[in-house]
């Protein structure tokens, strides 16, 4: 692969352009490109940035840690028990 990956979709034979655009939009959305583009349109204050990062953290961590070892699970349960007590 090249250093710069090209993002795009190949229009299949007989496929409507609308469907190809939908696939492209879905692909860009899952990669977070559209969200970043919208975010960069206007100034974001430090408070807004902090809130945005807090909202997106669970999604990032879910993707990052798909496998949880038993020891990690035990630690998480301990922490949950401490916070609820």
UniProtKB/TrEMBL annotation:
Keywords attached to this Swiss-Prot or TrEMBL record, sorted alphabetically, are:
Ribonucleoprotein, Ribosomal protein
The signal peptide annotation in the UniProt record is none
Q: Which GO terms describe its biological process?
A: translation
Q: Where is this region: Disordered?
A: 44-85
**Which GO cellular component terms, listed alphabetically, does the Swiss-Prot or TrEMBL entry include?**
ribonucleoprotein complex; ribosome
Q: Which Gene3D superfamilies does the record match to this protein?
A: Ribosomal protein S8 (1.20.5.1150)
State the Pfam families in the record.
Ribosomal_S21
Which residue ranges traverse the bilayer? none
Q: Where is the composition biased (Basic residues)?
A: 49-65
Matching InterPro entries: Ribosomal_bS21 (IPR001911), Ribosomal_bS21_sf (IPR038380)
Which intervals carry biased composition (Basic and acidic residues)? 74-85
> Which one of the record's GO molecular function terms can you name?
structural constituent of ribosome
Task: Write out the similarity annotation.
Answer: Belongs to the bacterial ribosomal protein bS21 family.
The protein's name is: Small ribosomal subunit protein bS21
Provide the species name. Haloferula luteola
Q: Which gene encodes it?
A: rpsU
